[in-house]
Design a protein that fits this description.
Helices cover 49% and strands 0% of the residues. It is mainly α and 59 residues long. It has a domain of 41 residues. Helix 1 packs across helix 2. The chain is elongated.
């Protein structure tokens, strides 16, 4: 299924964009691109880095 077919299906089934417009193929492409990026970020292991720590004890 290509982006235009997906957009047509969404429009035929009454789905609207968050701004209330009908879907176009570029909307579907953008949603898919952002979803892939989000999944990529979620799959990466978080790293912890601590540097430049300074402790001072008051008298």
């Amino acid at each position: 299924m290509n982006f235009k077919e997906i957009a047509d299906w969404l429009n035929e089934n009454g789905h609207l964009t968050p701004r209330g417009n009908t879907f176009r193929n570029n909307h579907v492409h953008s949603i898919l691109k952002k979803r892939r990026r989000r999944l990529e970020i979620m799959d990466t292991e978080p790293t912890l880095s601590i540097s430049n720590i300074k402790f001072e004890l008051g008298k």
